[in-house]
Specification:
Oligomer: single chain
Distance between the termini: 73 Å
Number of helices: 21
Strand order of the largest sheet: 3-2-1-4-5
Shape: globular
CATH architecture of the largest domain: Orthogonal Bundle
Number of strands: 5
Helix content: 40-55%
Structural class: alpha/beta
Order of helices and strands: EHEHEHEHEHHHHHHHHHHHHHHHHH
Strand content: 5-15%
Radius of gyration: 24 Å
Amino acid sequence: MSQPIIIHWFRHDQRVSDNPALTAAADLGRVLPIYIHDTIHPGMHAMGAASRVWLHHSLADLSMSLGGDLAYFMGDPLPILLDLCQQHQVKTITWNRCYAPWQVTRDKQIKTALSAQGITVMSFNGSLLWEPWEVHKDNGDPYRVFTPFYRKGCLQVAAPREPLLAPTDCETVSTDRGLPLAALNLLPSLPWGEEIARHWDFGEQAAQRRLEAFIVEGLSSYKEGRNYPAKPYVSRLSPYLHMGQISPNQVWYMLRDEGVDSNVDHFCSELGWREFSYSLLYHNPDLPTQNLQAKFDAFPWQDNPERLIAWQQGKTGIPMVDAGMRELWKTGYMHNRVRMIVGSFLVKNLGVDWREGERWFWDCLVDADIANNSASWQWIAGCGADAAPYFRIFNPVTQGEKFDVDGAYVRQYIPELAHMPDKYLFQPWAAPRLVLQEAGVTLGTNYPQPIVDLKASREAALAAFASLKES
DNA sequence: TAGCTCGTTGGACAA
DNA sequence: TTTGTCCAACGAGCT
């Protein structure tokens, strides 16, 4: 008698190696690999446009590594799963857990409904180093400060699971009930999607190559170098981690094999921040929409669509901010320090609600991740856990002078400022007329005047934050 | 249990 | 030019 068919439902685990649920499926029988584009449950956090581009290419790659047997579906997962189980006499489904609140609710319902039909679901941890419910204070409460969360809650409790090799004896089968990949309609009609795709290599092998390249060119300078957006000292692994082309466990152990020094420790603590975000989300399902600190509900945000649009389009007239926003639009990615600079600018200098920034990032980032994105926006706005103090307002001029010393980053994304001398590159409005003329810059014509005065808006923000304290 | 120290990412200003 | 101090307040963890 032939082996039973086990469905493995790929979600944020789009890889063959270190995939606990896929390995379990392969151990039990022949594997029917599927992907379901859920169009019913995500609500306002339906995947953004850049993530969909990433997903499309990632699925195409995954399908190849499964011998073309990956089957695509679209719609409501439960009836799709029930139909497949009936069609192929399937009694077991495996998946790796997802942690967005809507996914947690959905998966629970699906598990219950399938179990009522005599179908067993086996779920695994394939995307976090520590399960969010396993990390807590001695009294059982969740941590709200990163350092004790990571040092005591994570590091002192258990080492992360060691990564698994790809299953050697994984026999896959196909179904004729799936859709072609193109039918999922993930790619935008705009050429923008192709532009984004040009900046990345997709798939599991590409993720491994990215990690290896980072180890060679970035790791030994990571701790300091990670602050310089024009330098190759950051890993750029975030989109691969998000969609699961690589697991944090694989990254963790690959880096530690290099020998633990302060650079490796620092990078691992960044993985720790990812875990912290997931812990916050797990314990606060409203994190993407509600201020973690309720006193911020009274904050006097400005409703100013023109300013928001200028920020989104990289036309604020503040070079460091515009460079970041244009990097995002062009590549689907933004260097982490620049994310903090543009975030601080939107929230504190423009006075716009952090949720507007969260939404824009959600749509434009190839690594858009519900936990990281909402936790980080709350952090920069000051309303989150372990948040930046209200008086910590990034000055985009100073930040540029410190971290884009030779101006390479700004000049890359704002070619109209390419000939500005370093002295005025980060504040062209302060340049003498002759300097602007020689650089070919006419403010208000080929580069905007600043939409806000940095000093005055900083003081207004401090006053607004102080008003919270009194109320 | 009380008291103490510390906390991812900064800026402005005075000396 | 560089360095020290202040800008809050509070949770976590240590002694």
